[in-house]
Amino acid sequence: MKALIIVDVQNDFMPGGALAVKEGDQIVPIINQVQDKFDFVVATQDWHPADHGSFAANHEGKEIGEFIVLNGVEQILWPIHCVQGSSGAAFHKDLIRDKWKAVFQKGMNPLVDSYSGFFDNNKLGDTGMSKFLKDNGVDEIYICGLTADYCVKFTILDGVLEGFKAHLILDATRAVNINEGDFAKAVIEMENAGAIIGHSSDIE
């Protein structure tokens, strides 16, 4: 069975948000349309405590975009975003949620960031999404949302490693693009890992 995974379509990643993604809001209508093609839909939600170690503001003298070592892993420092219970952490108001079977929250451990919807960046914390999908007979996943070069990419890479046939819905994602070309590099990395790159119109 195939499932749609909607990654982090939250206010802080929208234009005007704390970690704004250019054109991030433009994918919402596409995701809404594509949900009609799936009987099984889940979502992920960035859900950080205010003291999260990935926030530049929590490291004296450090700036957004700098790198540190956080719990043994190289970590880029972000602006404060998607803090638990905040309006920025809420899903976009126009995102249809009627068909969702579950929401998997991530990034709750202040000592490690969590891009993937499956595991944290240290691969120690498991959201339970893989087991949930497999227990429900899902073997093929289609992934959309934000952002292509971070949370979407790592969700796809982990999905492949977990044995799912993984698809990226290219027109239903956007990238942070800290460096120009990050979007294209991420797509190549996902494809090289075994993901299938397609568009919403390709889904039957």
From TrEMBL:
Query: Is-annotated flag, keyword Hydrolase?
Result: yes
**EC identifiers of the protein:** 3.5.1.19
| Entries under Pfam families matching the protein | Isochorismatase
Q: Which SUPFAM superfamilies does this UniProt record tie to the protein? A: Isochorismatase-like hydrolases
Q: Which CDD domains would you find in this protein's record? A: nicotinamidase
Pathway given for this chain reads: Cofactor biosynthesis; nicotinate biosynthesis; nicotinate from nicotinamide: step 1/1
Query: Tell me, what is one Gene Ontology molecular-function annotation carried by this entry?
Result: nicotinamidase activity
- Keyword Lipoprotein assigned to the entry: answer is no
Xref: Gene3D superfamilies: Isochorismatase-like (3.40.50.850)
Question: What keywords were assigned to this record?
Answer: Hydrolase, Metal-binding, Pyridine nucleotide biosynthesis
What's the protein name?
A: nicotinamidase
